[in-house]
């Protein structure tokens, strides 16, 4: 998912590339993105309001015994991008290990009992198998194609994960790391690219995208944003090409046209391999140092460090609070310290797994010692300000399950945070305003140009956009 055009978060490659897998895409298009689901149980609903999370009582729910809570994950470990999405599991397991070392929750340890690889195209099949064979209380997903979403929605099982798929919108038993976002027909972050262009004093914008519907929608959203706000920021699109092919290695014609038109700011709706190929061609044609390249899916220190000479000066969007912002939020600091002490790679994917584990444990605590599916889902859906202890912009689960094309289903803030590629490829936090890393616009005013606010969500204390000024 392209975070820039599709919201808090997630990479463009995870959606765009896999539209090329015909059968899988057909299944994905048939899957509901607006499905509503109940609690998954007809039992009574309670909400725990105490502070003692060690209580133990009998619970009638799948995957729950007197000593443990079994959960399962499905990730696209095998995928055409070559990205190891199983890193998500390592972060998830790390968080559970930390919680278990402190006694677990409700007198039980959390066990990641099943780890399935959907091999990109088999998400629906692996979902069937998990539901029928693995006896789990909750499911965690970090997948390229979320074709099993309707099955999880129908089962009513608590589902958590990395939101890079349109299917996260709708079911009330789905709790991704960020609220559901638009993938077409609306631009949930209309201010962000124009604002960045203004910060780097760019005036001529280039847009590149693969020639598939999802990418075309992303490119159109980018162009619409500059059409709407270009005069406010002094930057306009002068070149756009949405006919590119995944796996394409020759971008000489596109870069030549950008060079002739004087492009000084570039955004793409492509995977990071495509971005990298374009960057190399810009070096070859002598314009790399003249163009600020904003990447929506390259918050990967290892990759960028290896290719620093092609990427220095570029801007990266991070859909979680980037590790480089100082001072670090307590939750970020906790993750970094634990990861380093336990040989877990400090990277976006392990952090995403950690954040999913954090939300799950928080939801368990909200449900109370009788944490049936119904109690957990209903208790967590009363949460109107969830920021993951500072990891993410606020989620309002009382309304953000709904179709994000409807303004009232969106969150109160349109936010992003950024890092810049410095010397030797090292990320440096930018625009973080002395400990306030998130650049936010009023999420309820997508058609009005605004002055953004710089905020931190680390305090967990709710506030309005107006109060943030």
Keywords:
469 residues, alpha/beta, 9-stranded mixed β-sheet, 5-stranded parallel β-sheet, 16 helices, 14 strands, 33% helix, globular
Describe what this molecule looks like in 3D.
There is one protein chain. Strands 6, 7, 8, 9, 10, 11, 12, 13 and 14 form a nine-stranded mixed β-sheet that branches. Strands 2-1-3-4-5 form a five-stranded parallel β-sheet, with helices on both faces. It is built from 16 helices and 14 strands. Helix 8 links the parallel strand 6 (204-210) and strand 7 (236-244). The protein has helices at 3-6, 13-16, 22-30, 87-101, 123-133, 149-155, 192-199, 213-233, 252-261, 272-284, 301-306, 308-311, 330-341, 348-367, 373-380, 465-468; strands at 68-75, 109-117, 138-142, 159-161, 174-176, 204-210, 236-244, 265-269, 292-295, 315-318, 413-421, 427-430, 438-442, 453-455. With 469 residues, it is α/β, with parallel strands linked by helices. The two termini are 30 Å apart.
């Amino acid at each position: 998912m392209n975070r820039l055009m599709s919201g808090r978060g997630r990479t463009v490659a995870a959606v765009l590339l896999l539209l090329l897998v015909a059968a899988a895409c057909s299944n994905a298009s048939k899957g509901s993105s607006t499905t509503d689901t109940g609690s998954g149980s007809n039992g009574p609903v309670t909400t725990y309001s105490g502070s003692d999370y060690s209580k133990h009582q009998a619970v009638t729910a799948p995957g729950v015994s007197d000593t443990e809570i079994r959960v399962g994950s499905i990730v696209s470990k095998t995928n055409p991008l070559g990205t190891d999405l199983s890193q998500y599991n390592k972060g998830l397991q790390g968080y559970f290990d930390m919680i278990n070392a402190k006694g677990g929750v409700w007198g039980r340890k959390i066990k990641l009992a099943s780890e399935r690889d959907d091999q990109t195209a088999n998400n629906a099949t692996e979902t069937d198998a998990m539901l029928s064979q693995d006896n789990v209380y909750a499911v965690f997903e970090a997948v390229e194609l979320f074709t099993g979403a309707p099955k999880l929605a129908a089962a009513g099982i608590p589902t958590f994960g990395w939101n890079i798929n349109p299917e996260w919108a709708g079911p009330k038993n789905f709790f991704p790391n960020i609220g559901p976002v638009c993938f077409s027909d609306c631009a949930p972050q209309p201010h962000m690219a124009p604002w960045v262009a203004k910060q780097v004093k760019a005036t001529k914008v280039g847009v590149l995208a693969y020639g598939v519907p999802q990418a075309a929608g992303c490119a159109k959203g980018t162009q619409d944003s500059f059409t709407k706000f270009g005069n406010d920021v002094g930057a306009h699109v002068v070149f756009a090409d949405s006919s590119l092919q995944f796996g394409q290695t020759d971008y000489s014609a596109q870069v030549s046209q950008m060079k002739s038109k004087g492009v000084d700011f570039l955004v793409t709706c492509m995977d990071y391999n495509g971005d990298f190929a374009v960057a190399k061609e810009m070096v070859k044609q002598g314009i790399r140092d003249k163009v600020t390249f904003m990447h929506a899916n390259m918050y990967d220190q290892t990759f960028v460090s290896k290719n620093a000479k092609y990427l220095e000066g570029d801007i990266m969007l991070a859909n979680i609070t980037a590790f480089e912002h100082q001072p670090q939020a307590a939750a970020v600091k906790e993750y970094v310290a634990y990861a380093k002490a336990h040989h877990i790679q400090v990277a976006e994917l392990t952090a995403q797994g950690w954040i999913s584990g954090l939300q799950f444990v928080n939801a368990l605590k909200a449900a109370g010692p009788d944490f049936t599916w119904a109690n957990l889902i209903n208790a967590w859906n009363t949460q109107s300000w969830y920021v993951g202890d500072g990891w993410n912009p606020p989620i309002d689960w009382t309304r953000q399950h709904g179709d994000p094309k409807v303004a009232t289903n969106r969150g109160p803030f349109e936010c992003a945070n950024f890092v810049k590629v410095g010397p030797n490829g090292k990320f440096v936090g930018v625009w973080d305003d002395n400990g306030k890393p998130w650049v936010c616009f009023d999420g309820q005013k997508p058609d009005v140009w605004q002055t953004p606010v710089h905020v931190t969500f680390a305090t967990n204390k709710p506030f309005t956009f107006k109060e943030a000024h």
